[in-house]
Design brief:
It is built from 15 helices and 14 strands. It has about 425 residues and is α/β, with parallel strands linked by helices. It folds into two domains: about 180 residues, Rossmann fold; about 200 residues, 2-Layer Sandwich (Nucleotidyltransferase, domain 5), CATH 3.30.420.280. The strands form two sheets. It has an eight-stranded mixed β-sheet with strand order 3-4-5-2-6-7-1-8. Helix 2 packs across helix 3 and helix 7 packs across helix 12. The radius of gyration is 24 Å and the shape is globular.
Amino acid sequence: MPLTEFQQEYLHNCSHRWNVKTGATRSGKTYLDCAVTIPKRICAARGEGLLVLMGNTLGTLERNVLSLMRELWGPDLVGVIRTSAAGNVVQLFGKKVYVLGADNKKHIARIQGAAFEYAYGDEITTWDEGVFQMLKSRLSCPHSHFDGTCNPESPTHWFKKFLDSDADIYCQAYTIDDNPTLPAQFVADLKKEYTGTVYYNRFILGQWMAANGVIYRLLADSLAAGDGRFFWPADKPLHPWRVRIGVDFGGNGSKHAFVATAILPGYSGVVGLASQRIDPVAQDADFLADRLLEFCMAVFARWGEIQFIFCDSAEQTLINHIRARLRRCKLSWLADRVENSAKIRINDRIRLTCILMGGGRFWLLPEAATLRDALATALYSGKHPGVDERLDDGSTDIDTLDAYEYTIERDFKRLTNT
């Protein structure tokens, strides 16, 4: 694939110590690095120090970078991650390259004291700040370079402050329209999905924008206007393809929450089928199990299916009790379908629901009233500058939000078609 003008501009100017591409998603930032930048840096290495690839986790680094490089260059030149006594390594273009998760500074401490001749950074704004500070001290060879990419976050984010400093930085900012190779319909759909959210500014316009106020503005405005766009039409048959139930456990001022969600055929959308929120009774696991079984019975009676029950993974004792109670009821087969929640990052869960709402692929039934209200009143806290944080002080219904998100988080890629 020929390089865009913006990508060629980066190659002409990326001779600085720090070379960073920020901006819109799918704008060609990572593709350029996998196709050209990383191979050139590795092949030009002089043996002055270690070669390192860093991402939020090893999983995201494999998905975002290594798998694409393997596609472009083949498995002979781009190996797979291997675990050794010295850490996780991968063979790239005949050289040993360390791979590190940057979500916790203990990962980089495993190779304490080593100098980095070359480091590549993926999704830098998701890193632990301490990791980046340690990296700065390691990039100490005469020939050291860093290449990295990120999507913008808040303008007070620690990495934005670094980019605005007087360090030796070349920074290039992309919008979605800087990648002319993307299909026009895809770009139009992406813009529609992010309309009305902070993600439009960040992932479409490439702007550093603070997240504040109402999270799901489209839904809140729709409910205020009474236009009904997020309610499944009463005259339209609903045929769920998958039905999941999410369970969040209450305590310390929070409540138990149950949410039933339908996944539509081909992951084309989701429907909130029913929701319930109840006060916990202290030390009474049977009370919780009774209410959940009643909820499951009602969902199964109406829709004829429950694929999984996803529960808050922090409460294994309660989960085991629910399994035991299920084995003794009419839904005994469900006992083997009780799973732990995946608990992906909360901001990724928020982004998923924003995409579904913006793309016209999210609906509610009247029986999901507590879910409707929880989504419509969800807020960003704004308490910690530079951090996207959902308000969780008891004034909003976080319990129902969590339960709902457990039902869809495992299908982030399928539901976003990414």
